[in-house]
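Justification of computing resources. Each target in the renewal requires a structure prediction run like the one illustrated here; the chain below, 249 residues long, is used simply to show the kind of job we budget for.
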Amino acid sequence: MTHPEEGRTHDEQRLGPVLRRREQVQPGTTDQRLLDTEGDSEWVHTDPWRVMRIQSEFVEGFGALAELPSAISVFGSARTPAGSPEYDAGVRIGGALVDAGFAVITGGGPGAMEAANKGAREANGVSVGLGIELPFEQGLNPHVDIGVNFRYFFVRKTMFVKYAEGFVVLPGGFGTLDELFEALTLVQTQKVTRFPIVLFGTEYWGGLVDWLRNTVIAQGKASERDLLLFHVTDDVEEAVALVTKETGK
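Resulting structure tokens:
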């Protein structure tokens, strides 16, 4: 009886949906590599395995956050010192959002994120922290009641948008700017709708707004109406009123 493999060329190999030919043919089979306990562990660092880890992060995030009440994501610098005016504003914003009926989602770190989580916890609300694996990892702050740590920024950013109805953005650095412009782009391109974005701190954000108006818009890189995608305020009550009004609560 002829074996199924007899007569088949070794210049072609099918690995599930993947076809390999000629010098791209790999020795052995996927099952063999899986069951071979003497093999090395390099396979956990390959791109196909990373896809599974990415998928698992989405599953874990969706599972942890799916039953959250209406929420607002609050961003700001991890370097904001406790006791500073910005920190105190973060505490007041976190508490005021809870009083308005929202859960509070932050990046889970120290500084402004900790402040908003603290305000939410002290107001007996739901305080959420979405952490990220970094070389200088500091862990989730102690005011987080529901915490999820992520390996990948893009998975974490999806959670910020998917489970929030708006953003309040305190003064911050590159990470804060990244989240801000991600949200602005999603609203501008209508990937999300009814998504209020409030920048807290007119002095801090004023230079950015001027640059958008006098350079970006003036040179035709954006439209004048794009300045309507966000609000700027120094008032905690106004910040909460703006997200409350636009979310329909």
